[in-house]
TrEMBL record:
The lineage of its organism: Bacteria, Bacillati, Actinomycetota, Actinomycetes, Kitasatosporales. InterPro entries: Glyas_Bleomycin-R_OHBP_Dase, Glyas_Fos-R_dOase_dom, PhnB-like. Pfam families: Glyoxalase (PF00903). CDD domains: PhnB_like. This is VOC family protein.
Length: 138
């Protein structure tokens, strides 16, 4: 298997809901495992929380996520964003509509100075998404 780069997002107890939402947006196969399933003895109340999840889509996207481990502090920041780009305008606009629907649009999805259609939003889980639709050569 070749090396691959994909985002891994930490959540504060709502990883299951977030990853199920991303599956609704992008489709694909979602696998989730809880701390309890892995026999985490210290899990306690976190036994049903997500220790690891992976969404793999037919488009070749991979997104991983988990709830923070028991005893570890959740430190949200602005150092994570996820970029989705390509030239399938219909699919990308569909992703945009779902991601921004209950979120906050910071850059409207529109033609930019570099020629592509681009937008940026923060979804309802606090994750920043960048969507770039490449223009087809004339």
């Amino acid at each position: 298997m070749p090396s691959r780069l994909n985002p891994y997002i930490s959540f504060d107890g709502n990883a299951r809901q977030a990853m199920e939402f991303y599956k609704e947006v992008f489709g694909g196969t979602l696998r989730m495992n809880t701390y309890g399933e892995f026999g985490e003895k210290e899990a306690g109340d976190a036994a049903d929380k997500i220790m690891h999840s992976m969404l793999e889509t037919d488009s070749g996207f991979t997104l991983m996520g988990a709830d923070i481990p028991p005893g570890m502090a959740y430190k949200p920041g602005n150092n994570l964003s996820v970029s989705v780009s390509g030239d399938d305008a219909a699919a990308l606009r569909g992703y945009w509509d779902k991601l921004s629907g209950d979120g906050t649009v910071t850059v409207p999805l529109e033609k930019q100075m570099w020629g592509d259609v681009f937008g940026m939003c923060t979804d309802r889980f606090g994750i920043t998404w960048l969507v770039n639709i490449s223009e087809q050569p004339a």
